[in-house]
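User: Modeling request: complex.
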Amino acid sequence: MKTLAMDAAGKLISSSYELDLYRPNIEDYLPSGSSINEPHGELRLRDLLDISPTLTEAAGAIVDDSFTRCFKSIPPEFWNWNIYLFPLWCFGVLVRYLILFPARVLILTIGWIIFLSSFIPVHLLLKGHDTLRRKLERLLVELICCFFVASWTGVVNYHGPRPSIRPKQVYVANHTSMIDFIVLQQMTAFAVIMQKHPGWVGLLQSTILESVGCIWFNRTEAKDREIVARKLRDRVQGADNNPLLIFPEGTCVNNHYTVMFKKGAFELGCMVCPIAIKYNKIFADAFWNSRKQSFTMHLLQLMTSWAVVCDVWYLEPQTLKPGETAIEFAERLYASALII
Amino acid sequence: MVYEAGAPFSCSSRHSMIDIVLFSLLGESMGSASSMLTQYDIEEVQEYCDHLFSQQEIVSLYERFCQLDRNAKGFISADEFLSVPEFAMNPLSQWLLKMVDGLNFKDFVAFLSTFSAKASAQHKIELIFKMYDSDCNGKVSFNDIMKVLRDLSGPFMSDDQREQVLIRVLKEAGYTKESYLTVDDFFKVFGNSNIKMEVEVPVD
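Assistant: Request completed. Predicted assembly structure:
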């Protein structure tokens, strides 16, 4: 996976954007003392008016920039424009849409019925018995995620030790689509920090995910960041809460590149356990280009593909080494994720 | 990307033909612009930019145009340009935006053709002139140059310092604070020196 760089403020740095060394620097030719009229050095009108390096960089950014490249869906090559493969592919389409899709919708519906009929009573009746209720809700959320994964015929290989419930630990993972969360949730119930979404996803978020202990933020609120940071800190200290999962890239990236991690997750002063998720593209392209598709469309597309195959690696937990800044810590973890 | 002759040039994301048909039957939109660029279109655009780009470069530029133009409006708006971080950070971004905001694809290519390796130095100097001449009256005044310099050198210098340097440099070249520079003056000032203003269009 390739990389870009983000500085402390979370802004992208283009490495080619430096002061041009061959162009005389205008600041060097400031008049010193009272000798304003003496010609200094080589600065001529031509050099002053020559804005071509800056213009070139701007035009270069218009033509191609590395940040947008991370969000481009990589289109597949057309492999079925062929007299033999095309009928086979058509048959495959029929199977996918007419057999697999209805079966999956059925599985999903059954799953939801079971889930809701268990969740609502548990939520309402066990109001007094908090630990029991939380345990049951956790199990139920894991169950519905299993159903979700089954509805896309998800084949997930987990490598590494499973997450445990301990205080002062934070999980970080790369982000390709909303389903990352579901894939991980199937194995262990996590509390996630997520952007509040509109529509039915938002409804899900406020009812069910609330019970797992998720934290919401709103990107458009400026003050929101401090409130969320405080909530995060409190959450991490608590022993009984579900382990916290953070997606440091902040957004869905196309699984070919990773965008450099934002450093927020690494400043909490606890152990960071990285998780790497890699999808196998042969069966389905799991990248959710949220600028182009709504989540419903994305789900439908997944449900009409053959399968979602992915590998999840639980990597070794790391802590901040003495003398290391949050950014260096992030870079180190990022490098270990790159090896996958 | 390998396309056989006659295959549609599409800048849509991963959707096969049947999926497109089926989903449109279901009444839901795909949300992406799967517009096609025919050979005729490419040649027309190539003519318009005086053959400064090859046909493959025009196809790449079209994909880039579609990528930036998110709602398939046919032009790229200012905030879509500013969503490219490397562009937004450039000190001359506001000046460039005045020239590229709302351009359709043909004009977009014509604008970028100044940055082609095959473009003449004269073409490039004319663009630099247009950048300075923000009120488009064919003359660049002392204040016009100051405005651009202010954006370029930013907080590193005070206005007085900039003025002093500019007055001195103008004097050296034979102009005063009150002179107006025309495009011919620009040609004279830049003379025969090589202007290095080239951008490579990635062609995969």
